[in-house]
Amino acid sequence: MVQCKRYAPENAVGRPTVQQFKGVVEENQAWRGYVVTTSRFTAEAVESAEKNDRLVLVDMERLVQWHV
């Protein structure tokens, strides 16, 4: 599963977004869930994602690396 957030660089994705998507991944028994953003993630969002080994956060820097 993938959730994309097209945010400005100064508008970080926060923990509530990650927690909500984590619930969707669990509820649907998805093998992996990706939250992809054109921005970055808050420290709290990263901390929340690290509690689930099926959730992957992809910020703008990582997204660009995928394309290189």
Write up what this structure looks like.
The protein is an alpha/beta fold. It has helices spanning 15-27, 43-49, 60-67, and strands at 2-5, 33-37, 55-58. Strands 1-2-3 form a 3-stranded parallel sheet. α1 (15-27) links the parallel β1 (2-5) and β2. α1 (15-27) runs parallel beside α2. The longest helix is centred in the N-terminal third of the chain and has 13 residues, at 15-27. The mean pLDDT is 95.
Short summary:
The chain has 68 residues and is an alpha/beta fold. It has three helices and three strands.
Using brief descriptors, characterize the structure shown.
68 residues, alpha/beta, three-stranded parallel beta sheet
Q: Ranges with pLDDT <50 over ≥5 residues?
A: none
Give the biggest sheet: 3 strands, parallel
The share of residues in helices is 40-55%
Order of helices and strands: EHEHEH
Biggest sheet: strand arrangement: 1-2-3
Q: Strand share of the residues?
A: 15-25%
Overall shape: it is globular
Average the pLDDT over all residues and give the rounded result: 95
**Number of helices, where a helix is a run of at least 4 consecutive DSSP H or I residues:** 3
- Rg over CA atoms: 11 Å
Structural class: alpha/beta
Gap between N and C termini: 23 Å
